[in-house]
Every structure is written in C-alpha cells, then in structure tokens.
Design a protein that fits this description.
single chain; 215 residues; alpha/beta; TIM Barrel; 9-stranded mixed sheet; 5 helices; 26% strand
C-alpha cells in the first residue's frame, strides 16, 4: 500500500492552497492507496472526512485524520514539528515534545518528527528538530521529504540506524502538484488508524522519493 501521510489543505491550514476535494482526486490520480490530512494542530473529524470522501467521488482511497504539531520547550524554544496519528482530538501547537509524546502514546498513537532536517531559509540550521530528534522517544521521522538533498537524507538514515525506528516518506504538500512526490510503501494491509500506528511502530514500511528516482 502506498501512502502520503503529510498533506495540508486550505480547510484548516492557512499556508496551503489545496482544496480538500482536489487533494483526494490528485491522490487517486497518482496511485496512492491512502493519505493523511495533517493540518497544523487541527484534526479532521471522522464525520468531516466521510463527507469529504463522498463529495470527492473518489473510490478506494483511505483518508486518515492526522495533525502536525509544533512543539516548544518550557522556556519557549522551538523543538520542531511532529506528525501525530491516532490521537482523537486536536492538539494545537502549544505543548512541549516531552508533554506530547506521553499524551499520544497513552492512546496507542504515534509521533513522527516532521522534516527534522529541512534547512532554514537562511541555510543556517534546520527548520525542524534537527539532530536533537535523537533525544526524543518518538516512533519515527520523515526520512524522505521534498526539501531534502543528499546530506539531509544521510542525516535521516543515520538517525534511523541509531534509533531503530520508522522512516516515512511524505510530500508535506501545500500545493496539489506535490501530492505523492514522496510516499511510504507499507508492506502489510492498513485499514484504519489503529493498524496504521501498529505498522509504523513495527517499521514494516519503506520511504521513497519519486523526485529522486525512488531512493
């Protein structure tokens, strides 16, 4: 099963220009079996997703509710952004990673570091958790991301080898044309959020980047 687990829409993410219906249509067009809608600190309800699927007319596409949470330490220092799957409520963006992880794990959800090695616009440091990601008891990282070059992919590979956790591929789409550029291939069947979280924890997956010839 091929999935893009990091997509923003203009329904809840002001930084995205993707109409939610267009997201589903594009995902089907590029051969995805499932996607996750990961708005900033906001989780789509199951009812809203059901209505969206019906409105889109797309068949045989699973749509998971996820969210992307920006975390800050007790002193206000930015700790990075994290993808959350399996938590039943919107989490906002005002928690520390130390608080977020046990909240999500208490309901058998998973926490993935979003683009930890995405470089800042200035070229100095990372817009993400960077090498600090190794300090967090999370379930995985984005190992393939459209912003990554060879060095960033190497950093991600080193973390995965050290921590023995899942490395997923995601588009982080804010424009419909980006959907599916990076994706995750799951080796087993994933039918719901619970099974998605299990497969991530068990690392039964592979991250690919179609932009880079499937690396």
């Amino acid at each position: 099963m091929e999935m893009d687990l990091h997509i923003h829409t203009n329904r809840y993410s002001g930084c995205s220009n993707i109409n939610p219906v267009d997201a589903l249509v594009k995902a089907a067009e590029v051969g995805l079996d499932a996607i996750a809608l990961t708005e900033h600190g906001i989780r789509w309800s199951e009812e809203s997703i059901e209505k969206l699927i019906k409105k889109s007319g797309v068949k045989n596409l699973i749509v998971f509710p996820g969210q992307e949470v920006a975390c800050y330490s007790a002193t206000g220092a930015f700790q990075g952004e994290f993808l959350v799957y399996g938590y039943p409520d919107s989490l906002g963006s005002n928690k520390s990673i130390e608080k977020l992880i046990p909240m999500v794990h208490s309901v058998d959800g998973v926490v993935i570091a979003a683009h930890p090695f995405k470089k800042n616009d200035t070229g100095d440091g990372f817009y993400g958790s960077g090498h600090r990601v190794a300090e967090y008891s999370i379930d995985g990282i984005e190992a393939q991301h459209p912003s990554y070059g060879d060095e960033e992919r190497m950093f991600a590979a080193q973390i995965l080898e050290k921590k023995k956790m899942a490395g997923i591929g995601c588009s982080d789409a804010h424009d419909v044309r980006s959907i599916g550029i990076c994706r995750t291939i799951f080796k087993g069947q994933v039918k719901d959020v619970a099974s998605l979280c299990i497969e991530i924890r068990e690392c039964r997956l592979e991250a690919i980047n179609l932009k880079e010839g499937g690396k």
